[in-house]
Design a protein that fits this description.
mainly alpha; globular; about 375 residues; 3-stranded mixed β-sheet; 16 helices
């Protein structure tokens, strides 16, 4: 039965890929309408999800029960089941503004608490401007990434330029693939902060995970907030030009909070108030409103807003003496990081080692006491 359950979960999770079902089919047309008006909010069309498959997956999830054991594997299984149910609910909510907001907040563990919001307001005031870097082409970024990958002997990773409009850079770790949109505007990021975020963060963690055994080689449930938080920490704190990226993440987080209660147009105007270039403001608002059909309605996709919260949580973990090696040991969230074994040949990016040295903190410190292995 366990093997059957594993196959069911794999089937459901493979189907419920957000980048497949949340990529609007009519972005170009709606963007044109949007910029011709001062009041219009886009009406987005998404790929049609087969209803029969959704029904099958809901039926399978009802059959799968939480484990009553107290081992670490039981803990991970139960968390994976919980996450899969939330992901299924999230996909099923596309088009429903209220449901997509609630399900995404739970799936990505977004809090929007007062302390985080006040921190974001301060970082949003960093005295730097967003300006289009015309000299930094998509081909330049792809070439730089290919060169940077060589320092990790990651020649089996590929960088591909795509025609997609709803993301800038996308990492597909299972395929060892980095996708870059040819429509990207590099208004908020330097080359160094991009390499830090995408490769030193996402790719290095994936390489280290591939050296692990058993469950530690897999993506852990609810890992993504820590994944993006660590990548943001590297790009914002440990890279040249990182302060502008930090400002961007803070404003994007506040934009998510605004989107909860306002329309696409009002959220877009919020970004303009912070001097985002028009194309960048549109793209960030689109990401926050993905999942909604009628974007004049209030609602927010928490996936785009979570970066800043994840950044603050990783920053706190490091400040409190959390193990850097365990943090890079695989695709785990902060809850599971203390239980991660450290691969023999673990890779730690030079930039984080330099940062820790400047702060006189050791790379390997005592694991935090709150670990699921004790459950």
């Amino acid at each position: 039965m366990n093997s059957a359950v594993d196959e069911w979960l794999k089937e459901i999770r493979t189907f419920a890929k957000t980048y497949i079902w949340l990529s609007p089919l009519n972005i170009a047309e709606e963007k044109e309408k949007f910029f011709k008006s001062k009041t219009y909010s886009p009406k987005l069309i998404y790929p049609t999800i087969p209803v029969n498959i959704l029904k099958r997956h809901k039926s399978l999830l009802r059959k799968i029960k939480y484990r009553k054991g107290s081992t670490y594997k039981d803990w991970v299984f139960n968390e994976r089941l919980k996450e899969t149910r939330l992901r299924n609910r999230f996909i099923s909510s596309i088009g429903n503004a209220k449901a997509i907001t609630l399900s995404s907040e739970k799936l990505y563990k977004l809090k929007f608490n007062k302390r985080y919001i006040e921190s974001a307001k301060k970082d949003a005031l960093i005295p730097l401007s967003f300006k289009t870097k015309s000299a930094l082409s998509t081909k330049d970024i792809a070439k730089a990434m290919n060169k940077y990958l060589k320092r990790y002997d990651a020649d089996d990773w590929k960088v591909t330029i795509t025609n997609q409009r709803d993301y800038y850079v996308q990492i597909k770790a299972s395929k060892k693939l980095i996708l870059i949109s040819k429509f990207v505007d590099w208004d908020f990021s330097t080359l160094d902060s991009t390499l830090a975020h995408e490769i030193d963060g996402h790719v290095v963690r994936a390489i280290n995970a591939s050296s692990q055994k058993d469950i530690f080689s897999k993506r852990f449930p609810f890992y993504i907030k820590t994944e993006e938080g660590l990548a943001s920490f590297l790009g914002d704190y440990c890279a040249d030009g990182g302060k502008l990226s930090l400002k961007h993440h803070a404003i994007k987080y506040l934009g998510g909070y605004i989107a909860l209660n306002t329309s696409f147009r009002e959220t877009y105007n919020f970004f303009l108030d912070y001097r985002f270039p028009k194309n960048l403001a549109f793209q960030k608002t689109l990401r926050l409103k993905r999942g909604l059909t009628d974007t004049k309605l209030p609602g927010c996709n928490a996936r785009e807003a979570m970066y800043y919260e994840g950044f603050l949580e990783v920053k706190k973990y490091i400040k409190n003496g959390g193990s850097i090696k365990r943090l890079f040991a695989g695709k785990a969230g902060l809850t599971d990081v203390p239980s991660m074994p450290i691969p023999k040949n673990i890779i730690i990016p030079d930039r984080i080692a330099k940062y820790m040295k400047s702060k006189t903190v050791k790379l390997e410190s005592k694991p935090l006491s709150t670990t699921p292995s004790a459950l």
